[in-house]
């Protein structure tokens, strides 16, 4: 059995993520914890990405059974607000009622017409079919039927909209098409405990970009589950961002994470920089929440300065007290993956949600949603961003709403996906070989995926 943690310590002595993270103080227990158990090192067949029968079975065995992120609470702030969530041919209408959240299959009980258009959101006093004007109240109970005398066979008390499961956690709304599924908090396993110090309910969607990509949804998602590619796809980042020395943790069936240090050189860097140079060039995922750079005091690090500056700004502008948060909690890329398809970054310096789904019912196309979260202003006045949709040949960098650095990284990540998809079809080997540590979370994802596909998941 290979001890992967020991392997990292030997390969990068004094320069693992934990080494970098503790130079400015002790880590909280949730970040000090390391967990990366031994795994089966067998190859992953490309059929999981390109085989139509596998894709079809995913909808039955996975998408109809798992909790999946649909939207944020602020999308459903007031009674009457609705949000349509689509996954392949499945569609749900989520509404805010006076009593709380409800979710319904997006299909009329009369002739099956979609009740709300795919991808829509807004406000409505009821739920009305656009075909024959059947109407339901927000709680799903039947409101009215034109020419109702035409339906003597219909029991009005049993003609409510078909419901599906919906729950909210930490400002995020999840749905599940399986009526018998365990509660969301059970599904999230260690996540609620890990996020006790990261309350995202006081944040809102400041930018939402949706990009259509030329590859299976897993191809798109897995590009964000490792930094093995960073020196070759993002070479400009290696001087100021850790990559090959990232920490990868696997906690449970549905939850894993990676930890990437900002304001420190990668083991692959070819130049050495002073702390002031590191600060001046420091890459933060959303520069709009950081502001201008300062000067590094004697005996301090660029990371410490950036964290302190961010604490001060959060207190002064948003009345958020991060005095008890460690340096990595403030500025590092802390990324949790929740099976099957969502990434949550809770650190104030890089607060994001990323979501990956099949694009319609095409195994070779994916939808990538990038949410950038900002703290809510003191006065409570904010506007939830509308989604901006771009195609495969359009760039994140073309959007004024995107931070230039973050847009550049996302463009580099997504530009490679068509080549990967085409290479899978062209392969004579028919499978991928993953590294034992840097790509361990991808392997763990496939293990969980296999359990669902075989019907053996808990």
As a percent range, the share of strand residues is 15-25%
Please tally the helical runs, counting DSSP H or I stretches of 4 or more residues. Answer: 15
What's the number of extended β-strand segments? Answer: 20
Q: Give the termini separation.
A: 26 Å
Shape: globular
Largest sheet: 8 strands, mixed
Pfam family, one: Ring_hydroxyl_A
Cofactor: Fe cation
GO molecular function, one term: 2 iron, 2 sulfur cluster binding
Organism: Croceicoccus pelagius
Explain the overall architecture.
InterPro entries: Rieske_2Fe-2S, Rieske_2Fe-2S_sf, Ring_hydroxy_dOase_asu_C_dom, Rng_hydr_dOase-A. It comes from Croceicoccus pelagius. This is (2Fe-2S)-binding protein. It is a single chain. With 458 residues, this protein is of the alpha+beta class. The chain has 2 domains: 4-46 and 197-453, Naphthalene 1,2-dioxygenase Alpha Subunit, Chain A, domain 1 (Alpha-Beta Complex), CATH 3.90.380; 68-185, Rieske [2Fe-2S] iron-sulphur domain (Rieske Iron-sulfur Protein). Helix content is 25%, strand content 23%. The chain contains 15 helices and 20 strands. The protein has helices at residues 4-11, 17-21, 29-32, 47-50, 52-63, 184-187, 191-194, 217-222, 230-233, 275-281, 302-318, 327-331, 404-415, 417-426, 440-453, and strands spanning 44-45, 68-72, 81-87, 90-97, 100-105, 121-123, 127-128, 135-136, 142-144, 165-169, 172-176, 203-213, 247-250, 255-260, 333-338, 342-345, 352-359, 362-375, 387-390, 431-432. The strands form 5 sheets. The protein has an 8-stranded mixed sheet. Strands 5-4-3-6 form a 4-stranded antiparallel sheet, with no helix packed on it. It has a 3-stranded antiparallel sheet with strand order 2-11-10, with no helix packed on it.
